[in-house]
From TrEMBL:
SMART domains: HTH_ARAC
Protein name as catalogued: AraC-like DNA-binding protein
Entry keyword annotation includes Cell division: no
GO molecular-function terms, A-Z: DNA-binding transcription factor activity; sequence-specific DNA binding
Residue stretches making up the HTH araC/xylS-type domain: 190-288
Length: 301
């Protein structure tokens, strides 16, 4: 993999909003180390060409740097920060949104024996590896299309498929493959994750979520912990606090109302847990957040 060319392509085509003319392809360029910020990871491949970034998921901390990639196979609440970035040497990253349907299509088209059978425990929803040359070369060829817009429509889908195939046959194949398997443990956990995200303000019983996923309570709890590094209740709390912070950016004078909207019955508990998560009480943080706009991009790029 030619890291110099990858850096040049990323630096030349970076935009403030990380989007590109190629659907699902993202580019980040950050010129300073950043404070930890919370967001959702998205389901995404993120490859770093320069600099380094740190992601915290529950009690796990992942760091990926130049020549390494991270895969998030479930949309998870994470806290991230760039640890190596400056004006002279900005952090440069490539992102590709991963769609389960595209992974499933490749799995169906693979010939018998092309993919080894899945084995071992349920993979984590977030993994990091060194990027092999064939993966990096495919990413470079995809980015080259930004200089040849007329080729994007025909060639970009082909190169995206190649990138997915490199992931499916690479070191982190298990995490990526389970993204496309409708009956995998990871997909069952992802179903519960979506339910919690959609109903984060509602109380729930773990038994009901286990029934939703078709697992026993013990198997569900074990697999949920393996994928998300959190218990279901801890996961719900992360979502509630993130949503509360977003609401406070536009409703800074209604701390009590925001707490109730995200599911807290006790204002004191809301304030205590919010401060523990973000380092400041809701009212103080709300003043600082005024005017903040939610970023609809994966956090890991």
């Amino acid at each position: 993999m030619d890291l110099d060319e990858l850096r040049a392509l990323l630096a030349r085509h970076a935009r403030p909003d990380v989007s590109t003319p190629i659907e699902g392809v993202l580019i980040s360029k950050v010129e300073q180390q950043t404070a930890p910020t919370t967001s959702m990871s998205g389901t995404v491949l993120a490859l770093i060409a320069q600099g380094a970034k740190q992601m915290a998921l529950g009690d796990r901390v992942y760091e990926y740097r130049a020549g390494q990639y991270l895969v998030a196979s479930v949309d998870l609440p994470v806290t991230g920060r760039f640890t190596q970035a400056s004006a002279g040497a900005p952090a440069l990253g490539f992102g590709l949104v991963l769609h389960p349907a595209m992974v499933a299509e490749l799995l169906l088209q693979a010939a018998p024996g092309d993919l080894p059978p899945l084995a071992g425990p349920t993979p984590s929803g977030m993994v990091v590896s060194d990027a092999p040359d064939d993966l990096g070369d495919a990413v470079i060829r995809l980015l080259r299309l930004l200089d040849k817009p007329r080729d994007v429509t025909v060639l970009a889908p082909l190169i995206k498929r190649e990138i997915l195939w490199r992931l499916l046959t690479g070191e982190q194949a298990a995490a990526v493959r389970q993204l496309g398997l409708a009956d995998s443990s990871l997909s069952h956990v992802a179903r519960a994750v979506r339910w919690i995200r959609d109903h984060y303000a509602q109380p729930f019983r773990v038994e009901d979520l286990a029934r939703l996923t078709g697992m026993s309570v013990s198997a569900f709890y074990r697999n949920f912990q393996a994928v998300t590094a959190m218990s279901p209740i801890q996961f719900q709390k992360q979502i509630r606090l993130q949503e509360a912070r977003l609401l406070l950016a536009t409703h800074p004078n209604d701390v009590t109302g925001v707490g109730i909207r995200v599911g807290y019955e006790s204002p004191s508990q809301f304030s205590r847990e919010y401060r523990r998560q973000f380092g400041a009480p809701p009212s103080q943080d709300a003043t600082r957040l005024r005017g903040t706009i939610r970023a609809e991009v994966p956090a890991v790029v």
